[in-house]
Amino acid sequence: MDSRYEVVIGLEVHVQLTTKTKIFCGCSKDFGQEPNSQTCPVCLGLPGALPVLNKQVVEYAIKTGLATNHQIAPRSIFARKNYFYPDLPKGYQISQFELPICEHGWLNIETEELGKKKVGITRIHMEEDAGKLIHSDGNSSAVDLNRACTPLLEVVSEPDMRSADEAIAYLKQLHQIVMYLGVCDGNLEEGSFRCDANVSVRLWGQKELGTRAELKNLNSFRFIKQAIEYEVERQIDVIDDGGKVVQETRLFDADAGTTRSMRGKEEAHDYRYFPDPDLVPLVVDHAWVERVRAELPELPEAKLQRYQDELGLTEYDAGVISSERAVAEYFEALVGLHNNAKICANWVMGELSRALNENDIAIADCPVTPDLLAGILNRIADNTISGKIAKKVFEEIWQSGKTADQVIEEKGLKQVTDTGAIEAILDEIIAANQSQFEELKGGKEKLMGFFVGQVMKASKGKANPGMVNQLMQKKLKG
Amino acid sequence: MQLDNLTISQLREKLASGETTSVELTKAFLARIAATDEKVNAFITVCEEEALAAAEAADQRIAAGNAAPLTGIPLAVKDIFNTIDVRTTCGSKILDNYVSPYDATAIAKLREQGAVIIGKLNMDEFAMGSSNENSAAGSVKNPWDLERVPGGSSGGSAASVAAGQALATLGTDTGGSIRQPASHCGVVGLKPTYGRVSRFGVIAYASSLDQVGPVARNVEDCATILGVVAGYDPADSTSVDTPVPDYLATIKDGVKGKKIGLPKEYFIEGLDADVKKAVDAAIETYKSLGAEIVEVSLPHTDYAVACYYLIATAEASSNLARYDGVRFGVRKDEGEGLIGMYQQTRAAGFGDEVKRRIMLGTYALSSGYYDAYYLKAQKVRTLIRQDFLDAFEQVDFMLAPVAPTPAFKIGEKTDDPLQMYLSDIFTIPLNLAGTCGLSLPCGTSSEGLPIGLQLFGKPFAEGEILQAAWAFESATDFGGKLAPL
Fold first, then answer.
1. Domains of chain A, start order
2. What would the pLDDT profile of A272-305 be if each residue is shown by its tens digit?
3. B237 among known catalytic residues
4. If contacts are CB pairs under 8 Å, which of residues 73-112 in chain A contact chain B?
5. What is the ipTM of this complex?
6. Domains detected in chain B
7. Residue B366 known to be catalytic
């Protein structure tokens, strides 16, 4: 990064909501259906059709607003944003303009380079999505309005971010929250979580903002970072060459890793916003807000702290486990059944996530439920099985769905804790490896592992390794 | 069969007793349309086949003994209402070929009752006009004088009733579009309180002002029809969830002891002498019926026309953006790309007045002008509404002329839009206030043209003004007449 310049980034994120139906009509918002099959007079913008607000959308907006520290407006207004485009059936988009439902929010972020900071969020408003144009080879385009009228939240940040990394940290934080709330499926590639970045640069110490470019077509976190970094370099080059940055929309080209100008002056649209007379002002009373607040799940930031303070996890472990709601929920269920949180965390992050990854299964669908896994951990804790055998038991349970006790019983995996039995094996092994035993006695500590390993091998892993160690020490002294 | 001077409830008795059938009635009206509409041009589409089928179904329903108030009654509706069976043009070339895939809520309610919809009525294009001269289907003629306008925009709705082509009709009123043509055609027209009747399926002109209402030969029929179409509709967020009273139950209660306000701003210099005479006589009639007359003031009346032409056109400029040739309606595409298609479609599809209002409204909403025009107009609107509410603190309802003059000649004002706009000067404020009003015949001019009287009611007090109108109608002999065509 060029040290003469300060980078300024503001982000606009469109969060597509997971409601069953569209924002202003009862149509299903299932995707991947026949073009124009999920439509009705309202979302087709037919003459005389009128919008009716989906209450679930409001509920989701309040949720998201509260989770990102916003004030919820007791009265907000839908406005029409007027422009012509074939994918916009009414010739206007119903959005919110002057009085959005959420204002004055913020999120905490952290980056390696710049540390912790609070990023302001100007507002969150509700709006409808447009349809899609399908361009054919010839000279014509087709319109699919299945997506028209799909509910979106637009989350507009303050220009508070100072590096691509900060932008990514903010986005990941926001992404995590909407996923946690269950209001969005979070799919960047399919456009469920769409980000436009406003990027500008200014000399250090300069008060006013530089001219910004709005970057679009950013459908992965990696592309967002690349696009911002490229754009910063480009703007600095323009200024260094004595030029001026123009205010414009630039498309990110993922193949080239560059941004290119999309439209020039046409961009200065006059959208002629005005309150939509078809919709009455939206009134959200205090009781509604408080009910939603009471129903909010514990958010990742709070979990991260609690896992460290109350469960004694490291910051790293707490971070990994709290990053995804389903993982955190699994972990919390497990901790409820097995009291050693550290062991629980190790298993969730280790064996469990390895198996989930290998089998490409979501944690919610995991065949080894918290109940079953707790069964394994409890048998380790009471020395019925060793950690090593436990992995075998886990595999068995994954395949069969049986309980740990059943598997241990059926496969005869119960750990040998009978001192006599272990000592007998040990004696045999010492007898067979007399010279090594003498060397160990003489101080070649490394050989300890060899003997313990031999006992484990001979017992098919069932000997309690702790006891083997103890007995060995006794033999050495004896 | 003699159809003059019959109310819907009297007809219903005749239907129930078997004295007539819905098919017979429907045929009679279809015949009347066939005989007169070349002169009047009140209909854009006559639904002969559909109407006869509905009439047959109605007769079966009547025979089965489960008739509703409008079962078998032939009605016609303004071509602004979406109907699933026949085309809905809204008086515009751009919707010349348009058939809606759904019925407007008001239409669905009529159909549920078994009413027979005999046709779709002519109107000013997209309800923009005061004379019904702005229709792609041509001007409607005033049945009392074919050289004159019937008023607008629901010109067809009023003219067809006066011409005996329909028993009653539905219209819409955005700035007087029911009341002014009702006045010019000598029939009764009611504009309900905003939110009283669902707008769902009614093609929007100015969403915050548009309201559906009946036009009929007599007050009672207006009440009957309002009782059917009124009511909360979950599909229209601006419809109001308040019970619909039984308007007929109170209609004969009279005006004794009622306080009637005369807004002084409506009795001004320049009011046509015949109109003044007729309205003054009506005031005397009300006095004789036991009402108390007091003067009231609606001080912001002067600003109403300007205010209306900013708000209505602003909303219209946005409402009419959907007519872009992409999904429905007439498309003109001479291969000059998307923008070219938009321009050609809208240039060819819209008439001059519609274009004028789209431009006015676009301008009023434009960045840099919004505060001075649209926002200012909204503030004025609040004041005008407050004027009405203040006056209603003092009186039960108000009385005023409907239009400054009787029906004017076709072509008389077409070159002067401002003069045309001023013909709605007495009807516009009520739409801005959002309360209810009606127009009923109160006399004729020296040239034999009908003159109307306007009553303004409190919000949702349709029952009270119907009652007052019925009292006047019963005491006088101005209404219920068919034009001698």
1. 5-287 (no CATH), 301-402 (no CATH), 419-477 (1.10.10.410)
2. 999 999 999 999 999 999 999 999 999 999 999 9
3. no
4. 80, 82, 84, 86, 89-92
5. 0.96
6. 8-252 (3.90.1300.10)
7. no
